[in-house]
Amino acid sequence: METLFTPRRGTIVGDARLAGQEEGLKEGREEGRMAGMAEQLLRLMERRGFSMTEETRQRVITCTDMPLLDLWFDRAIDATTLDEIFARPSATDRVPTPAQSPEHTAVPSQEPRNPGSSAT
User: Fold this and answer.
1) How confident is the model at residue 1 (pLDDT cuts 50, 70, 90)?
2) What is the Cα–Cα distance from 66 to 101, expressed in whole angstroms?
3) Could you tell me the CA-to-CA distances from 38 to 33, 69, 71, 79 in Å, in that order?
4) What is the pLDDT averaged over residues 86-106?
5) Which candidate, 73, 74, 85, 81, places its Cα nearest to that of 41?
6) Residue 113: which residues within 8 A CB-CB, separation 6 or more?
């Protein structure tokens, strides 16, 4: 019978292993979110009656840019052609950058300013 050694918290090896597991879980959740969004986008496009090639399906399935998947999904709601969905993002599109996604958005703390000091 094989016994597995599991390092514990508080040891260098244990802490590194736990950190790696937590990072792996985070990456797995993000990959799952992207895969789910891709599936929903394909479903929406099918329901809207778009005829999709295998190339189009692969483009959606292999996309790893969540804001772009969100944009394509939003466009697919009203689009009349696949070209409208996959058009290059323009300045008028609402494409959140990864730093603006909900898990990365933080409200900056606003410390009261000292009226006697000047900002440089």
Assistant:
1) low
2) 9
3) 9, 7, 11, 17
4) 61
5) 73
6) 119
